[in-house]
Specification:
4 helices; 96 residues; three-stranded mixed beta sheet; 14% strand
Length: 96
Amino acid sequence: MITSAYAIKEAHRNLDYPKQRKDLEDQLGSVEVVTTAASTDHPLFSNDVKLPDKDRPVPLAAIGAGATRLLNGDFQHFGPYYGERILSFRRESTSL
């Protein structure tokens, strides 16, 4: 399993309690952390995928790392793409 430094920062920002943050850190010990693509100006976002700029680094990191699945609990922004194949990976999402 992999994640990006950007996704970790976003997860921390969305967790309300210190115990939740500690649990996240504990689980990250078995996860590979990859870099996030620097530019969010990618052809993927011109027609195929409509995401706010703040969410674009998530699929770009997955694509850059060669991920085969994307797990994401942000139904508001990623929900329309659940179960869809985008570029070289099939995105599947789940609630956190």
